[in-house]
């Protein structure tokens, strides 16, 4: 893994354009900012081309969308493709709500995604694999998560990140796994949304190797979460959220290399 | 009070569906999550039936709504009734803004609410009692708050929570009062919104006894706030907000029983 | 500077009405609340006149707007003028996105603003001065920031705050500068949005002297940020955000006078 991509983010401050869901948007903006990139958010379709033009990566979050937002997401995805900017999708709750799955699949037929990040329930839904998702949570299933992720990657022809206790990252052929992390991520709503946009920041400095960018983003984010968790004596989700921002800014490549566990 | 309902939330992780106002939505989601339930938010009317279907309670926040959101709130309330899911309403600022009062009363004519949670100014407005509300704050009035709450409960035929230094909970006949709490709740915007959605989580595990659920939710939330306040030497609203999430996750039934004050 | 205006806010709790961008709205509400004023937010044009009526100042944030929100912003600005309430504008990213600049200038042709607060890139755009803005960040330019701010103030016929390492406040003739602050403000998204709404709170207690209100708001906010930064051994953006709320509530006029640096 090229953990050094983290330094490239901090040196070049890539602009990451987001359509964020309204639930976690400030956290996502702060996370992008803390790690060293520059967040920008949009709600107006008329500024799409210009917004994509000043950005180095685009991250589209499909949580809590309304119909006008779907049009906006579509325009943003097409503009990202047209302007050759890396495009990351976070398909929130597509495993639990069939309407969201239909909209997400429909959108992904109209533009080419570079990276999809979701939990097991969400990735299973996109792969067409049976899974018992629970609301915004991963739920449970019998399938091997590596196979689920590979199936989704092949189907959508992109890199897939299946987040969980172990993160699985695959381009459909090659597979990387990240073993770092902490259960506190599940206790803080928006951890996944934040990772998705941070994946955008890594894609922006990756020279087009999105498989490398995706796995490095996962390793850096999971390791930083683990660094914070190790500072806490108890499971403190509120304190975790604040310190996660601290360490996204403070953690060095060396700090991460010291604890990194992946294959 | 059945404080043990808290353990039932943690064991069964009920899904609480929210239409949240955009001001406090992340805090509300994190609060639901921290106490042990599972939050989900929606902005799209097309997914209403399905969303209600996967949920164990519905909480509708009437803060900062636009016209399309009113349609969405209406559909959500009707679906909650049709699918027999407990329904909680938070009528933000209906005491200060007559437009909001009109919309709120109009909505409540079209579906049956199980629990309303508001401050004195908001509950007085729904009861049709004179009160000098101030923006989103409670304001002041001469009426006895217990009588105000009872009048609102009778008028809307539901359980009413009138939040304040003392919380008053009533079904129009019986009255419970919770004396725990801290002034820090007033210093953190969204404390009330969070409580309303947490009431939803308690309703979800209450076997239909919403009066029990409402008073227990108030006792648990107020006590946890007090536990946090007791840890702080000064009034620190930012630190309070973070630690409130910590203790929503950590506080045990025994911790709450130790300080609980109610009648 | 009348730092004592801070005490007047805490004694009279002015209501500050906001159209806030969805990215930072909770932070803005909490910041207004913590400093001692009372925040209220709106998303519905039908409640405009009534909302302005109960408010003591109006703050309009032009970050992340959609077309219906532009109509709402316009109605709010006109109502603030008609009801003689102080009006503050935050023109987010007008330096980077020409669509936003066009909309912002168009709005300001239709109502009279009392105070504009932005970073160098945003103020330069409104002044019609060349500047290399970067997304939501200030970017860089060769012009003297005092001249840029004066040009914008003359053009818009109002007080202008150009925020940065040094804050420049001007009515087009007179200039005040605030030297307090901390780089941590840049590391926390929404610091500027929060300042803009806090300027509204100071305007509400200023007896119409918005130049005085604007510079005092900058001094108080920058000093409180510096107080928090001095408590931290490292750059901790998450901890900074929480403690900023703490100190907005706790810091006294004397605490600020002790470190205030301005001319």
TrEMBL record, chains A, B, C:
<keyword id="KW-0547">Nucleotide-binding</keyword>
<comment type="function">
    <text>Catalyzes the phosphorylation of the hydroxyl group of 4-methyl-5-beta-hydroxyethylthiazole (THZ).</text>
</comment>
<keyword id="KW-0784">Thiamine biosynthesis</keyword>
<feature type="binding site">
    <location>
        <position position="41"/>
    </location>
    <ligand>
        <name>substrate</name>
    </ligand>
</feature>
<keyword id="KW-0460">Magnesium</keyword>
<keyword id="KW-0479">Metal-binding</keyword>
<comment type="similarity">
    <text>Belongs to the Thz kinase family.</text>
</comment>
<dbReference type="GO" id="GO:0009229">
    <property type="term" value="P:thiamine diphosphate biosynthetic process"/>
</dbReference>
<keyword id="KW-0418">Kinase</keyword>
<dbReference type="GO" id="GO:0000287">
    <property type="term" value="F:magnesium ion binding"/>
</dbReference>
<dbReference type="Pfam" id="PF02110">
    <property type="entry name" value="HK"/>
</dbReference>
<dbReference type="GO" id="GO:0009228">
    <property type="term" value="P:thiamine biosynthetic process"/>
</dbReference>
<dbReference type="InterPro" id="IPR029056">
    <property type="entry name" value="Ribokinase-like"/>
</dbReference>
<feature type="binding site">
    <location>
        <position position="163"/>
    </location>
    <ligand>
        <name>ATP</name>
    </ligand>
</feature>
<keyword id="KW-0067">ATP-binding</keyword>
<feature type="binding site">
    <location>
        <position position="190"/>
    </location>
    <ligand>
        <name>substrate</name>
    </ligand>
</feature>
<protein>
    <recommendedName>
        <fullName>Hydroxyethylthiazole kinase</fullName>
        <ecNumber>2.7.1.50</ecNumber>
    </recommendedName>
</protein>
<dbReference type="GO" id="GO:0005524">
    <property type="term" value="F:ATP binding"/>
</dbReference>
<dbReference type="GO" id="GO:0004417">
    <property type="term" value="F:hydroxyethylthiazole kinase activity"/>
</dbReference>
<feature type="binding site">
    <location>
        <position position="117"/>
    </location>
    <ligand>
        <name>ATP</name>
    </ligand>
</feature>
<comment type="pathway">
    <text>Cofactor biosynthesis; thiamine diphosphate biosynthesis; 4-methyl-5-(2-phosphoethyl)-thiazole from 5-(2-hydroxyethyl)-4-methylthiazole: step 1/1.</text>
</comment>
<keyword id="KW-0808">Transferase</keyword>
<dbReference type="InterPro" id="IPR000417">
    <property type="entry name" value="Hyethyz_kinase"/>
</dbReference>
């Amino acid at each position: 893994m090229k953990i050094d991509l983290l330094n490239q983010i901090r040196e070049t401050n890539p602009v990451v354009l987001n359509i964020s869901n309204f639930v976690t948007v400030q956290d996502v903006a702060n996370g992008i900012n803390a790690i060293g990139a520059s967040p920008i958010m949009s709600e107006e379709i008329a500024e799409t081309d210009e917004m994509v033009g000043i950005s180095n990566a685009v991250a589209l979050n499909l949580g809590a969308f309304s119909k006008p937002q779907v049009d906006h997401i579509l325009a943003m995805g097409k503009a990202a493709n047209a302007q050759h900017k890396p495009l990351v999708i976070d398909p929130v709750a597509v495993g639990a709500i069939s309407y969201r799955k239909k909209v997400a699949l429909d959108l992904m037929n109209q533009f080419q995604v570079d990276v999809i990040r979701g939990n097991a329930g969400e990735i299973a839904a996109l792969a067409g694999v049976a899974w018992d998702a629970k609301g915004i949570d991963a739920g449970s299933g019998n399938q091997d998560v590596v196979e689920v992720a590979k199936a989704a990657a092949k189907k959508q022809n992109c890199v897939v990140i299946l987040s969980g206790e172990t993160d699985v990252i695959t381009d459909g052929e090659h597979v990387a796994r990240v073993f770092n992390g902490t259960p506190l991520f599940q206790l803080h709503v928006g951890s996944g949304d934040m990772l998705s946009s941070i994946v955008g920041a890594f894609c922006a400095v990756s020279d087009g190797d999105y498989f490398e960018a995706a796995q490095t983003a996962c390793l850096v984010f999971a390791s930083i979460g683990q660094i914070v968790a190790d500072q806490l004596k108890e499971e403190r989700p509120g304190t975790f959220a604040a310190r996660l921002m601290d360490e996204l800014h403070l953690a060095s490549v060396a700090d991460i290399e010291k604890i990194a566990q992946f294959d």
